[in-house]
Amino acid sequence: MPFGVASAVALAGLAAAQAAEKPGEKTFRDYCAACHRYDGQEMGEAPPLHASPWVDGPAEPLIKIVLHGVRGRMQVQGKIYDREMPGFGSILADKTVADLLSFVRTTFNEQGKPVSEEEVRRIRERNESRTEYWRVDELLGGKQAGE
Ligand code: HEC
How confident is the model at residue 110 (pLDDT cuts 50, 70, 90)? Predict the structure, then answer.
């Protein structure tokens, strides 16, 4: 048993992408970690996912960000960002987005509730004709996240 655990840890360190992964984890590595870092901490221009009000908050804005992208001023962990993130709706299926966001929520927020495929499908359908990134103020409906 201790040997098994030690091997698993060593494997994860050596060949991270190949080690046994939770659903959504590979998608996170492939599409998000380059900007948000694998541990969800701040990197360069991208805000942290760890302890973020967006990850912690309702599912709808979070799903919209991943499907269509986001731009504009937002505050995360006390710091102001005013950048742009591209959307991934054209390359990630509903189930993939659901698994990805469930992974993000449970990994970076202790209370994280999973996101269902049905929620992603509903939000994608309602915004079918959207081509632009979401603006932060649209997502918040006038409120400021983290303020
Ligand atoms: C090209 C870099 C880039 C990639 C790739 C990227 N993001 Fe982002 N993301 C950003 C930036 C920059 C912002 C801040 C946008 C702003 O200032 O309005 C952001 C904001 C966010 C936010 C809201 C703020 C926060 O920190 O909680 C979430 C949630 C998020 N991204 C999740 C994801 C997920 C999930 C993926 C993978 C599908 C992803 N991002 C891929 C750059 C990126």
Answer: confident
